[in-house]
Amino acid sequence: MKLIPRIGTLLVFLVIGSEFAFAGSDGTTGIIARIDNAPIVANGDVAGAPTDLLITLDGSLDPNVTGRSLSAGKTISVLLPAEFDLSNINPNYPLRDVPFPFPPAPPLPERPCIPGNLQCTTAVLLRGWPQDPLFPPILNATLSIDEQRNALVFTAVHDINTTPGLKQIHLILNGVSNPPAGRYRLKIEAETGPAGAMETGEGLITIRHAPAASINATSVFVPALAGRLPGGVACGPGSSPPLPDNPIYQNTGLLEAAPFVWSNLVWAADAEPMDDLELLPLSSNIYFLLRSNRAGPWWRRFAGTVYVESPPGARHQRIEQVDCPQRLPATPVIGATPGIGPQEVGRLDLQFYGGDKAGVYRTTLTIKGGNAIEYVVTVD
Length: 380
Known about the structure:
By secondary structure, the chain is mainly β. Helix content is 1%, strand content 36%. The protein has one helix and 23 strands. It has one helix at residues 222-225, and strands at residues 29-30, 32-37, 50-57, 75-79, 113-114, 117-118, 121-126, 141-146, 151-156, 168-177, 182-190, 199-207, 214-218, 249-252, 262-267, 277-281, 286-291, 301-309, 318-321, 327-328, 345-353, 359-367, 372-379. The strands form five sheets. Strands 1-12-11-4-9-8 form a six-stranded antiparallel beta sheet, with no helix packed on it. The longest helix has 4 residues, at 222-225. It is globular.
């Protein structure tokens, strides 16, 4: 691991404007908090591309806060706008569940529905952090289509009350193409209330003309970076679900490293991999993200910020950049899916160290012209 040294001059930042566009959550009601482009693709919310969206339900994503449960036989229905036509799915990507046992024994089916080669249209229920579905999905809830309502329907196979509960829904609709740019209203009807009572929500899907810059947390490298894969600590390869470790919410001791590295997938505008990021510390709480030396030995392009909100009086907290490869030939999960992937992507790995005061340290990573994500480390 290494801490990128201070660059000689900061005069460049005096002439750079730093306007940021954040993903919106307006137009939501009921149990939907927001709808975003999924973190595993650059274009899941772009006109003409396969639909790949993440629905976040209301309530905290903190794993210490209980989410929703779903009793056996009860359902969660995701009612899509008519423009996302589930009766006309591309036959190359039929509706399927991720199989069990997993990984499936060879030979693979003609069109496998497995992470890294998702030749299917599918959806999964998440516990609140990236790439951690209830796994295997088919042993928890079956997936079907209600064409009359243009809805994807999850039906619980057994009582689903696994800690911390249901908090997000990932729609990986490889057989559905996004409609023209605009805003479209999605609805949810979920028998997740007390005693299976119906809960509802609505939210707006914003379809863009073109991709935007983005930074996205991923969990697939946590086992390797934590030294739990054969060979000890390593940068990869990524792992398939289940991924019980939550890199978004962690605990550590005073002046100690958080147990899990923050791994991020990063795209520039137009889906270009952002594979040249450097971390520049300005203080223990403020950092710049810079794109590295492509135009000359002294040139760095401003790409974003990292800001740590720490307990009052805290000192010595720090973030170090982990020296892992910064370009992946394909995104995790999608991988080598014919006609869709691989999508090349940049990778940024960061290690957080707690300060000398107990409390909550919230770190926000923001990409210029794109989105922002947050990590939370409790130091005690």
